Amino acid sequence: MLMAHPAVLADLVEQYEALSLLHAEQGTPEARRRMEDVAYTLCVSTGTRDVHAALIAAKLRLPGARPEDDSLVEA
């Protein structure tokens, strides 16, 4: 499997988290579509099928991540 560059993953995580904070899923059709696009790209980039798993996988691939750090696991 090809691995996305950490800079790309960091950008995708940042975009998704910003859209989430802005409640894009409840916003305009354009905002919802953008959030869906970023979620899809995160999943493809990390080889996952769920955006929450994709966020965890992406964060674990970023510089400074520690595999034993369970603080990245979202409940």
From TrEMBL:
It holds the Pfam family DUF5133. InterPro entries: DUF5133. This is DUF5133 domain-containing protein. It comes from Streptodolium elevatio.
